[in-house]
């Protein structure tokens, strides 16, 4: 197995483990995410946290970005692994994609996984080809 796959497998294991901490009493849909930060190799994991007021729910992907900002002052993600028990694995929601584009390169590698492992890889630019941008 090459080094890149080994590193992605390590990120997957953190995302899978973090998924177990998800607070999802309303949907029952647990999501784990873990990201490797560009340049440092630091890996940060997060999960989704629901709220009875659905608008206050925060997805795992956004929690990874927010945790990266809180811990390092930036969220320049190199790889993001998202783990669900869905088949095929779920992609990030539109809110998460918009937050990701705020902090990450359009070339961010997003690895979609089920509980057995990574099933596919897409780039942020593929999932959000025309992001909302700031006003001129």
Write structural notes for this entry.
With 136 residues, this protein is of the alpha+beta class. It has one domain: Cytidine Deaminase, domain 2. It is built from four helices and five strands, in the order H-E-E-H-E-H-E-E-H. The protein has helices at residues 3-19, 60-72, 94-103, 124-127, and strands spanning 32-37, 43-47, 77-83, 109-114, 117-123. A hairpin with a 2-residue loop joins strand 4 (109-114) and strand 5. The longest helix has 17 residues, at 3-19. The termini are far apart. The model has no long low-confidence stretch (mean pLDDT 95).
In short:
With 136 residues, the protein is an alpha+beta fold. The protein is built from 4 helices and 5 strands, in the order H-E-E-H-E-H-E-E-H. The chain has a single domain (3-127), classed as Cytidine Deaminase, domain 2.
Entry keywords:
136 residues, alpha+beta, Cytidine Deaminase, domain 2, 5-stranded mixed beta sheet, 5 strands, 32% helix, globular
